[in-house]
Amino acid sequence: MLDRISAALPSLSPSEKRVGKLALEDPSAFASMPMDEIAYRSRVSKPSVLRFCRSVGYDGLVDFKRKLAGDVVEGVPFIHRSVDLDDKTADVFVKVIDNAVAALLKYRDTAHIGSIDRAATALYQTRLVSGRIEFYGVGNSGIVAEDAQHKFFRLGMNAVACSDGHVQVMNATLLRPIDSVVVISNSGRTRDLIDASGIARTKGAKVIVISCTESPLSELADIFLSVDHREAYDRYSPMVSRLLHLMLIDALATAVALRIGPELQPRLEEIKHNLRIKRYTLASSGATSAKAA
């Protein structure tokens, strides 16, 4: 969260910048200060304090202080530690998990909840008008797109995943204003995804982008969900960013499911029932094992 404030400082107004510097000087003290004291020590008005909180992506001072207190008191328990060539398996195991946990906790505290809420609302509205939702990704992001399609079609939505650049362009050409497309990319610079997103926009479809900030793809989004995580591409595949994308998709699917409400429950129960009959029971499994022996 402190990194987020530091990064935002250059773009803030002079009064908002003073509030930000006060927060950076002593985050723990800032988290417990009343509004009057923050305004006095920053030499700004109370509305300026609120504007600062909103400028860095929070709903207000209470939301900002709550997140700041959690960041300062709990902290992120692990720092990123790259895997070294001479690491033993136990070291690799700990480092990989520590890196993932740290990234998830950091994203929990820095994610722009307002944008996530807007994306969930847009996807729900697409369902209301019987629109189509398409998930685009290539490479690792294509796996996330497949997972998204698997989650959303169970909600009774016309959901499709596509990881082929040519098919993405063709599908985007057929989109309508009632449709939505979710584009997933770690780098935000994949040409196929940028091309498909541009076409989707010309067709009037809602374009939701999950990617890193200040990328070409982010500029094409109607709703942008930033996920920033640096990874050592020269050493291993970008795993943590994929986990963050999967987690965000899961949060969106859950938020949409809650908007659908009780009518969804019978459908999910029926799906579970029909899947259950495709599994071996314990008795039949044992019999099969005995027969094989």
Explain what this protein looks like in three dimensions:
The chain is α/β, with parallel strands linked by helices. It folds into 2 domains: 72 residues, Arc Repressor Mutant, subunit A, CATH 1.10.10.10; 160 residues, 3-Layer(aba) Sandwich (Rossmann fold). It contains 14 helices and 5 strands. It has a 5-stranded parallel β-sheet with strand order 2-1-3-4-5, sandwiched between helices. The termini are far apart. About 3% of the residues have low confidence.
Record the SSE blueprint.
Elements lengths: L1 H7 L5 H12 L1 H6 L2 H8 L3 H10 L5 H13 L15 H22 L2 H16 L3 E5 L3 H14 L4 E5 L2 H9 L6 E5 L6 H12 L3 E6 L11 E4 L12 H22 L3 H13 L5 H11 L1
Parallel strand pairs: 1-2, 1-3, 3-4, 4-5
Task: Briefly summarize what is shown.
With 293 residues, the protein is an alpha/beta fold.
What's the number of helices?
A: 14
Overall pLDDT confidence? 86
Instruction: Provide the number of structural domains.
Output: 2
User: CATH topology of the largest domain, anyone?
Assistant: Rossmann fold
User: What gap, in angstroms, lies between the N and C termini?
Assistant: 59 Å
What is the H-and-E element order?
HHHHHHHHEHEHEHEEHHH
CATH class of the largest domain: Alpha Beta
Identify the strand order in the major beta sheet. 2-1-3-4-5
* Main pleated-sheet profile: 5 strands, parallel
Shape: globular
Strand proportion, as a percent range, falls in 5-15%
List low-pLDDT spans.
73-81
Radius of gyration: 23 Å
Helix-residue proportion: 55-70%
- In CATH terms, what is the architecture of the largest domain? 3-Layer(aba) Sandwich
* Number of E-state strands: 5
